[in-house]
Amino acid sequence: MNLTLKIWRQKSPEDKGKMVEYKVTDISEHMSFLEMLDVLNEQLVEANEEPVAFDHDCREGICGMCSLYINGEAHGPDRGITTCQLHMRMFNDGDTIYIEPWRAKAFPVIKDLIVDRTALDRIQQAGGFISVNTSGNTQDADAILISKHAADEAMDAATCIGCGACVATCKNSSAMLFVGAKISQYALLPQGQIEASDRVLNMVRQMDLEGFGNCTNTGACEIECPKGISLVNIARMNREFLKASLKG
Ligand code: SF4
Ligand code: FES
Description:
About 35% of the residues lie in helices and about 10% in strands. The N and C termini lie far apart (about 60 Å). The longest helix has 16 residues, at about 230-245. It has 8 helices and 7 strands, in the order E-E-H-E-E-E-E-E-H-H-H-H-H-H-H. A hairpin with a 2-residue loop joins strand 6 (about 110) and strand 7. By secondary structure, the chain is of the alpha+beta class. Helix 5 packs antiparallel against helix 6. It folds into 2 domains: about 5-110, Beta-grasp domain (Ubiquitin-like (UB roll), Roll), CATH 3.10.20.30; about 120-245, Fumarate Reductase Iron-sulfur Protein, Chain B, domain 2 (Orthogonal Bundle). The strands form 2 sheets. Strands 2-1-5-3-4 form a 5-stranded mixed β-sheet. A two-stranded antiparallel ribbon has the order 6-7. The site of FE2/S2 (inorganic) cluster (FES) has 13 residues, from loops.
């Protein structure tokens, strides 16, 4: 395949940035999207030009690092996958592909296609954990009975990889699908009950402080989420928040 790429280039957070056009040739349909970008970068290095900076790590849909907006869609045109799992067979010879970073006030661009997603880490640090007695008297995890249904729902919420596609996709740049998943993961389990009120109040406060928008039930986040995180997690977060607020 021969392709035209229009890629967002931005030298630094202060730089204005612009779309730059590149050509790549002989791209195999079996390549992943990131491998196609590797080919472009090799081309640029050979021509003594600055390679395109983009985030990636595991390249198998686990770490949440890859984060490209491809032809106006977070993680590209396929569903239920991350950018690193996207294959070039989703495109046609002669296509022009637009590649941009996540766009959100809370995700400032660091360079080219790399954005700063530490806002999500700070939300997690505000309450996305449980405290466990590790003095030697730790209760065996198997001693706490959990229904299969609750365990399955908690596990589904825990599959969120923190990629931020939900934020990038949302017209309000809301992080509520991410935060809803992180809160649900604990709210559904007995281990999460002790700190439940503090957790939801602190995580929602941090989410607001970071400048994320509110949810207006459009549902784009659920569609673009590579892990199929459901909107019911946002509803559960809202219920947990109301419960905690009424408790004072
Ligand atoms: S909810 Fe989905 S889109 Fe949002 S951070 Fe988690 S995995 Fe990514
Ligand atoms: S590089 Fe890890 S999920 Fe894509």
